[in-house]
Amino acid sequence: MRLDKLINGVCYTSVVGELAIVEVEVIAFDSRKVQVNSMFVAVVGVNTDGHEYISGSISRGATVIVCQTLPKDIVAGVTYICVEDSNVALGVISNNFYDHPSRNLKLVGITGTNGKTTTATLLYDLFKMLGYKVGLISTVIYRIGDEELESTHTTPDALSLNKLMSDMVDVGCEYCFMEVSSHSIVQGRISGLDFVGGVFSNITHDHLDYHKTFAEYIKAKKLFFDNLPKGSFALVNADDRNGSVMVQNCVSDIYKYSLQNVVDFRCKISEMLFDGMLLSIDSVELWVSFLGRFNAYNLLSVYGTAILLGADKDEVLCAMSRLRSVTGRFEYVRSERGMTAIVDYAHTPDALENVISTINEIRTPDQKLFVVVGCGGDRDAAKRPKMANIAASNSDLSILTSDNPRHENPDDILAQMRAGLDPTSKYLMISDRREAIKSAVMMAGNSDIILIAGKGHETYQDVKGVKHHFDDKEEVLKAFEILNQ
Q1: Model pLDDT, residue 209
Q2: Is the domain of 266 the same as that of 354?
C-alpha cells in the first residue's frame, strides 16, 4: 500500500523523507518481524521501548519508521513519521492496511471487570444459533466463523485485531463480538475500529498494578464509551454505580439493563438450583443452564445486545434457553460418590465473592464448602489479602495455593494472602496447586462442594516465564479417580 494512504487519519507532527512514492509491504512493531520494504512502528510499551530497535529494523530492510521521537541518526532513503502516540498510530495504520474490516462487520465491544468472556462468547453462540456467521475475540479463544485460533491476549494487538477481522470478512461473517480490556483501550489497540455498540458489565478492583489507581481504571473503561460513534449503542449495567459514569458525555444511544430497577431491559431470578435457574426477562420466563446473579446480568446483557442489533425477541429467548456455560466459568463436575467440584476463573475479589455467594445460596445445611484459591504473581498485589479473606470468611475451609506465580516466589504470595485473615479463620496453605486440589478432595465428604478458583479455562501454570501444562478440571478428575480406588 502507498504510504500516503497508509497513514491517512494518523496524527503526525513531522515527516522526514518521501510519502507519496513509498510503497509498504509489511507492517511490524516487533523488529524481529521486519522484512524488506517494511514499516516499523516504534511502540512504547510497558517493559520495552521500540525506539531502541529503530536502527536494527532499518538494517533488516525497514524503509519507513513511525516514532514518537526522531532518532539522532537519520538514514538516507528511509522515511520517518513522527507521531504523538505510536500505539494509536499503529491502530489507525493497521485499520488502513487491512481496508477497514470492522466497517464490514457489526462489531460490538464488551468491557468491564467481570463477565466479558461469558458475555462475548454467549453472544457468539446466540447469533450462530440464529443462523449468522460470527466472529469472536475473547480471553479463551478467537473464532473466525467455525475456525478456532488460540487466544494470546484478552484483546490482541492492533495489527492482529485487524487481520482477524479481515479474515472474518473474507469468510462472510456479519457480526463480531470482542472483549475490550482496559489495557487495550489506553494502549490504543482498538484505535480506528468502527464499533456499532459497546457493553459495560461492571467495574471492581483489578489491574491496579497497571492503572495504579481505581480512578484511572474507571477512566480507561470510560474512554471506550467516549470514543463510540454517533448512531452506535451503549448498553450499561444500571446496578453498577459506575454504569452512569461510563456514558457521561457519550454520543451513542444509551440503554440500561438491571435486576433491580425499571430500565430498558429487566430480569428477575425466580428460582435457582444447581443445574440452572428460572429467569423472567422482560416478563417472559425461561429456564437457563446457568447459576448466580452474575450470570443473570451476563444473560440480560446478551439479550439486550441482541435486541439492539435487531434480532427477534422470541427467537432470542428461545435460543438463550439452549445456551451452555463457557469453559472454566462455573463449570462443575461430580464424583461417583456425589461430591461436586466447581472450576471458575474468578480471579478478582468481586468475582470470587459472587461465585461463593451463589454456591452458599444453593447448598444445603449439611453440605460443606471448600475453597481452593490463589493469586497470580507479577500482578496486582493489593487484592491478595482481600481474596483470602473472602474465601475464608464464606467457606468451611479455604486452601491458599499457587495460581500463576510467574517470577514471584509462591510462598511470598501466600504470605501476602494470609495477611488478610484473622486468627479464627479456618485455612491451609499448600503452595503446590496439584496437592491443594487433591487435599480438598480427600478432606471433603461425599455431598460436599469444592470451588477451585482463579484459573478456570487456563491449561497451564506460568512459573518463571515457562508455561507448564496444568488444568484444574483435569486435576480434580484425577483426584476423584484416586478417591474411588
Answers
A1: 54
A2: no
